[in-house]
Design goal:
The protein has about 350 residues and is mainly alpha-helical. It contains 14 helices and no strands. Helix 2 (about 30-40) crosses helix 14 (about 305-339), helix 3 (about 40-70) runs antiparallel to helix 11 (about 245-255) and helix 6 crosses helix 10 (about 225-245). The longest helix is centred in the middle third of the chain and has 35 residues, at about 115-150.
Length: about 350
């Protein structure tokens, strides 16, 4: 039995590495990246890498503190493990849909109930997307003319992505506060389970799900009226969001350019993020890169546009996914060893 578990774990590792290779290394130009790094200012590259590392750190701080509000003791190492798990699986699945379920499974292995983990995941998603909408509003106020006058097609992707994010936020908020929506979820689950023939203990499964939903409703009450916790979470996740967006500015400065200011370049990244959310590709790959190249022609000129895109995506996405993959494996197998 023990050997079978090791074989399954090894096969899981091979599968995850294969997926990572498919999405990251398949068409990756290492020679271009190395040549780009040789000609860049290393100080700004280091600042970009520090910003990339701070991205999971801010979310881990949020997870640790939020669980504290739910009377659940989680170490920073555990919170960081949950964060890297979510980042990795979100990065390799369409529309970033795989991160949260796997993250909740890892929490469950630490005896954290699904009701509490669901509350954390939903609130985290709400606040993280609200920080994006907040930055989008600021970007539209100050830089919409500068950007949309030059990239007209870009505007429609941004509109579509904005509507998608706003509707998604409203849906998640309704899951926290609307009894009608929660009851609808319960009824839908019950209906589906009762019509799946292969499930034997249907009543037991439905009863367990109802219990989890009731516990979730109690856990979500922690958020209501707790303005200090809401603002604290918003600030942490806003810093997390900025830490990944500001990498574009460090890459820009590493090429020796200083014509455009930091706020305009971050605004460009906000619009790219919104536009990428509208198209369901893993981690926004292809969409983000395609948009980024067209914007980089404006920021860097025709000579450095592809090099800048590769370096920026390497730091803000590819390197982050690789680090998350490594940390997830360490976290996952360390937990198995301890158990």
């Amino acid at each position: 039995m023990k050997n079978k578990k090791y074989i399954l774990s090894f096969l899981l590792f091979i599968l995850l590495f294969g997926i990572t290779y498919f999405y990251i290394f398949r068409k990756y130009d290492f020679n271009l990246l190395i040549n780009t790094l040789k000609s860049c200012d290393i100080l700004y590259i280091i600042l970009g890498l520090i910003s990339m590392i701070m991205y999971p750190v801010f979310e881990a701080i949020f997870i640790k503190r939020f669980f504290k509000y739910l009377d659940c003791d989680v170490s920073f190492y555990q919170a960081l493990g949950y964060t890297f798990t979510e980042i990795y699986f979100s990065g390799i699945t369409p529309s970033s849909t795989g991160g949260q379920p796997v993250q909740m499974l890892e929490m469950k292995k630490d005896n954290i109930t699904y009701s509490k983990s669901t509350t954390v995941v939903i609130f985290n998603t709400i606040m993280y997307k609200m920080t994006l909408i907040f930055l989008l509003v600021l970007s539209l106020i100050f830089f919409s003319k500068d950007i949309f006058s030059k990239f007209s097609l870009f505007k429609w992707l941004v509109i579509g992505g904005s509507l998608f994010n706003i509707l998604f936020i409203l849906f998640l908020i309704s899951l926290l506060y609307s009894n009608k929506v929660i009851n609808f979820v319960k009824k839908s689950f019950n209906y589906i389970i009762r019509h799946i023939r292969i499930i034997k203990s249907k009543d037991k499964l439905i009863e367990k799900f109802d219990k989890t939903i009731n516990e979730y409703k109690e856990a979500s009450l922690v958020i209501k009226g707790n303005y200090k916790m809401v603002m604290e979470s918003f600030v942490l996740l806003l810093l997390q969001r900025i830490s990944i967006l500001i990498i574009s500015y460090f890459v820009y400065r590493s090429f020796g350019f200083n014509e455009f200011n930091i706020f305009l370049i971050i605004a460009f990244q906000v619009f790219i993020t919104i536009a990428s959310d509208f198209v369901p590709t893993p981690g926004g790959v292809m969409v983000a890169e395609g948009i980024m190249i067209s914007i980089n022609k404006y920021l860097y000129g025709n000579i450095n546009d592809v090099s800048a895109m590769l370096l920026q995506r390497s730091i803000s996405f590819y390197f982050l996914i690789i680090i998350s993959f490594i940390f997830y494996l360490i976290f996952h197998y360390d937990k198995k060893r301890r158990l």
